[in-house]
């Protein structure tokens, strides 16, 4: 037995090595001349093997891997990306002119490749969020053109094409069984080289990127789900960039090391307009008046949020200038100790705290509040069925397309798929429909704001705060791309 | 041999029943898997009917649970545990890799526990080898306090202080040996404290046996005697260690989260929440197998260590000389606890003031304030009654179940391992699916796990007791089995198991709070202790007092239970003295703590 021990140890050693997680490109990081690879901690581990059709697509755009035909500019308008320009030929047809670019596998970005990529996206099951309720066909047109025809008139098609889910990958990426593999097949400044399950990934610079060579030679990504752990990773200099630092941990970082960016995420109080207490518009008005949003922004979010102004927050830059007074608000009534249930979820740690503050504010106004806090997936179906009187929800208001109207349609119209407030109001439906049909960007924004005023007038929703997202940035890092749509993080100019 | 075959069949039956139960879980609990899968993939996605229909179609949910289950089981023969509903990748390699990580973590934690235990009993070993143990009090409260600390607290403190502020060891990740130290310590310290206490209680009994005296008289060196005493006591610890091993492999979710370790605990938790059934089934099966292997290994080791003696029935049950019981300490602890509660009760536990958030302790707020500016002292005091009453009620129920099932060791043996191995969240989901989410559900979910260590303890005591001489004598006098049970066995078994159950009280309070996120149990703003710990955890570094206060009262409760348990023992001893021979066997464990549920 004793003689066997060294042998046993030899046998055990590789088994033990198999029990550790493979580090994100640790060999490349140890190279002395390659000291400036970026190390990034991301919050959401890939759920679907980095398939571009789900939420993982945002991870890919944040790392500068994939691109679509268009992108969003700072004002939320469509800007050129792989398409250099576009024009609307008629109601249902658009012609996009491609720029000269190559895929990371060396092949050229041809109209046929683009049409192929878009066709695959339309056939994906379940359909990508940006394509829900939309049919489109893409055909190659000449040497540089792609003609896209939509089933119905779609005035926001260029915005829609900026969605990460409609990224263009080379033909090699699309497997026979519907799987899509973005490793080495995209067009962005960084190329995925290795994906270690849901724990890490490595990326190298793609030298032939059309927009110029990136400054960082590569990226080592770690997926760290726990917010405290991400903050710790940054503090111990294990990473250079850590996204989505929880408010509770922000104070542990140096002031220089935390960047707060206003996001399009609005936390609001949704009141159930269909059942029991808040069927009464006067009581909804009483609840709205009871809420003090600045106490939430300062006390719960420690200033990493702006007090609620409307459905769209300050990150939607054009909204504040076009906002009009809410239309048709009811006069508040006395709640007289009416009992209500207020539900929220604990996946975002600030929400239960906000709900407790709300509870106190509502009770001061005369409601009797019972809280219900669960994990989100255990709560959603009950919320959609209207089982709660009130619900605190953090919602991205420019959802997947960057179009401001789609969130109004899904959340506040009779046919909306995510109508937690159970709102069904003729005036609101009409105003939203008008906005949906408006093509011109500025007019569409005006119509969206008119619909917002209508919705706020029903008091079905009380905007509480507009969240800011905190990104931990290492002291030596320059040029991190922090945008309100949470679609970018690392770009060609990011380095350390 | 036949017995073993029956046990094996029973084990397989339990495993099969569990896998089937998981397979029909969503249909029992009326939670649509398509919805939970969608939300796990992308939280922002609207659950429109078309999207859900697509997912249902992809996963084949319309075929119903039984066909899905049959397909999954069909693939299992070839080592193919299907594809994850979430990511679509193969389950077998993913679960095996997570299991490997968890096993390594468990092994290092076991090592840390062994070192901790060794430090705790070093003094007893040292004194025992020199035969100077007589009448010394065993180290008491310190290890009980260590054992009652919630593991997330040890983990956050280690990560922040050692990992971040001192920078001695990496604070997160799982890339090599130095990454294992902190998580292993977080898991191993409390468990080692329990095991150490257990061993420390057994050792004096071994040193008091005639062979030890003879060996010393013969001139054997002290360290040789100590080694034999250890060997004599270790088998008594093995069942406990086995439970510890299986418990932390699937149940150390918090530590895995804080240190970002890709282990089986997180994998099964995510799968349970998303209702990713193939992963959940495979993970559960792996854990059940591990439980069986651990139980088998424990038995094998026991046979290796003291095999011949067991076979010959030449092993008298261990008993220790009566230790002097604590007289003052229990009163001091309960006095302190009462004082804290009395001081806090007049204060308002719900009054929010966000301008006063995370304030340090002052005269107005002696324990400081929490993240919403509430007075921590008031919350601790107001939470005490709810917490203690509910935990006490659950303890009573588990004691009853544990003893009853412990009387049937062949039935409960496999159940104990299996229940311990299951991730707590899975047990809660199963219980909720069966009885619905009513007021009693959380208590039931906790009780469904908490009886296991008590049953194991009862069986272990019974085995020893049955071999005792006075039983043979009573039997020879014509006593029937019922008489033996009522007048001899139960009186010997109940007191130590009751002490054990008392020791688990703090653990039960913590377990109750850990179910809150499923919508079970106390909801904020209730000041229930477990909830207090959970809601203040993110602020542990900025406002340590908000976590330390509830942790301290829990630890105080643990220390109170240990020292008061000494009182129970004393009463028992007096009765034992009326019987001349042999002395009542001392329990192998009255500190068999919450290891199992951790």
Automatic annotation (TrEMBL), chain A:
Residues 1-21 form the signal peptide. GO terms for cellular component: ATP-binding cassette (ABC) transporter complex; periplasmic space. It comes from the Bacteria. InterPro entries: Peptide/Ni-bd (IPR030678), SBP_5 (IPR039424), SBP_5_dom (IPR000914). GO terms for molecular function: peptide transmembrane transporter activity. Keywords: Signal. Residues 79-418 form the Solute-binding protein family domain. This is ABC transporter substrate-binding protein. It comes from Streptomyces curacoi.
Automatic annotation (TrEMBL), chain B:
It comes from Streptomyces curacoi. The chain crosses the membrane at residues 7-28, 94-122, 143-168, 180-199, 237-259, 279-302, 328-345, 388-408, 415-436, 442-462, 501-523, 543-568. Belongs to the binding-protein-dependent transport system permease family. This is ABC transporter permease. It comes from the Bacteria. Residues 384-566 form the ABC transmembrane type-1 domain. Its main location: membrane. Gene3D superfamilies: MetI-like. Residues 589-598 have a biased composition (Basic and acidic residues). GO terms for cellular component: plasma membrane. Keywords: Cell membrane, Membrane, Transmembrane, Transmembrane helix, Transport. Pfam families: BPD_transp_1 (PF00528).
